[in-house]
Design a protein that fits this description.
Layout: H1 3-24, H2 28-38, H3 40-46, H4 48-52, H5 56-67
């Protein structure tokens, strides 16, 4: 993975975390607990191109579907 792609993936992981926390009014620590259970950030890392084209709300919806 190129450095540019890696940086973009990390940024997307940050956006997903931030958007999900705001949408559900939870802390980053609570999100990380969910991540530990569902491996959310790995999911984002596996398909960053999909998340790259999503709006903030779409990112939250995608994660909600993934964890349900």
């Amino acid at each position: 993975m190129s450095e540019k792609r890696l940086n973009n993936t990390i940024f997307l992981m940050y956006l997903v975390t931030d958007n999900y926390c705001r949408a559900h009014n939870i802390s980053a620590r609570e999100f990380l607990s969910l991540d530990k259970k569902y491996d959310i950030l790995n999911y984002v890392a596996e398909c960053p191109d999909i998340f790259d084209s999503m709006t903030n709300d779409e990112m939250v919806e995608e994660i909600e579907q993934y964890v349900s």
